[in-house]
């Protein structure tokens, strides 16, 4: 039976504390982090892209409406009045178009085109 | 060789390959911190991923006031602590219950085995210590951080760090002494 001196025990503790755990990260850890980051960056860019286009569209519509208001005043026409009367058509049409596009995009993503064989090997 | 002064500007320009090098350089450090705090390999892997994503997002705020390793260690420490708080449990209950059954044989040819078991036992004891002790002991002994660096990571005063180190080691020594007396 071996007797341990205080120094031996201290050495054992120090050795245990400085020994790395047997467990570790998976070999592909950095690749996984990179993929996750890439995914997040792509999402961010996509939101920026669509947000940018939405901003341009809304700005263009506002400028157009202001232009028509100016025309109405200058030439005493009633274009803006008739637009306001049918405002729900304008308000609903554009979001609906975007919704259809979005649903279409989701449907294609969910059910990719299946390969069909035209000939059978016998 | 990883040079943070070269890599950081590249990463800030969106170079993910440079970030890959950063991950490879510091993954060991981050894993040790997370694993010592949560004690579950799967949880530690998830937290490590979260840590590196945080590092990527906040790298623009790194001002070279401290070493990059210390800065990353601080993020890892706070992320792992948040995880513990969220789950409202400490890690020691995840250790195997039959830890007392580890067998010790002290014949010389089996020294490696004994050493391994002693390591396991010390780590088992360590996992029962409060997380501040665990962190201080890990950073000092395993990662060879200085007192100042540990202070930056844990936000504990230097005196407290020294006291935790002393008390933690003393406790482990006492317990190990009892263990060796009883089992050998």
TrEMBL record, chain B:
GO terms for biological process: DNA-templated transcription initiation. Gene3D superfamilies: 1.10.1740.10, Winged helix-like DNA-binding domain superfamily/Winged helix DNA-binding domain (1.10.10.10). Keywords: Sigma factor, Transcription, Transcription regulation. Belongs to the sigma-70 factor family. ECF subfamily. Pfam families: Sigma70_r2, Sigma70_r4_2. It comes from the Bacteria. Residues 22-89 form the RNA polymerase sigma-70 region domain. Coiled coil: none annotated. It comes from Pedobacter hiemivivus. InterPro entries: RNA_pol_sigma-70-like, RNA_pol_sigma-70_dom, RNA_pol_sigma70_r2, RNA_pol_sigma70_r4_t2, RNA_pol_sigma_r2, RNA_pol_sigma_r3/r4-like, WH-like_DNA-bd_sf. Residues 125-172 form the RNA polymerase sigma factor 70 region 4 type domain. This is Sigma-70 family RNA polymerase sigma factor. GO terms for molecular function: DNA binding; sigma factor activity.
């Amino acid at each position: 039976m071996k007797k341990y001196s205080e120094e031996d025990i201290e050495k054992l503790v120090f050795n245990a504390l400085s020994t790395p755990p047997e467990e570790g990260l998976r070999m592909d850890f950095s690749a996984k982090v990179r993929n996750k980051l890439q995914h997040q960056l792509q999402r961010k860019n996509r939101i920026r892209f669509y947000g940018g286009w939405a901003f341009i569209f809304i700005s263009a519509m506002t400028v157009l409406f202001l232009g028509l208001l100016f025309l109405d005043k200058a030439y005493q026409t009633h274009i803006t009045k008739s637009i306001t009367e049918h405002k729900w058509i304008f308000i609903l049409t554009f979001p609906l178009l975007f919704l259809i596009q979005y649903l279409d995009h989701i449907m294609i993503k969910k059910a990719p085109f299946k390969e069909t064989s035209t000939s059978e090997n016998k | 060789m990883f040079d943070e002064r070269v890599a950081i500007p590249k990463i800030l320009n969106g170079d993910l390959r440079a970030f890959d090098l950063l991950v490879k350089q510091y993954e060991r450090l981050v894993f040790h911190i997370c694993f010592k705090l949560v004690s579950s390999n799967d949880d530690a892997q998830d937290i490590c991923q979260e840590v590196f994503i945080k590092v990527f997002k906040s790298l623009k705020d790194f001002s070279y006031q401290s070493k990059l390793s210390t800065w990353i260690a601080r993020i890892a420490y706070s992320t792992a602590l948040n995880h513990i708080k969220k789950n409202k449990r400490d890690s020691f209950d995840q250790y195997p219950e039959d830890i007392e059954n580890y067998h010790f044989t002290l014949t010389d040819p089996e020294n490696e085995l004994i050493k391994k078991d002693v390591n396991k036992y010390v780590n088992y004891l360590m996992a029962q210590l409060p997380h501040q002790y665990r962190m201080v002991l890990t950073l000092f002994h395993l990662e060879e951080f200085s007192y100042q660096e540990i202070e930056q990571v844990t936000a504990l005063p230097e005196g407290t760090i020294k006291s935790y180190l002393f008390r933690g080691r003393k406790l482990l020594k006492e317990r190990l002494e009892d263990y060796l007396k009883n089992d050998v």
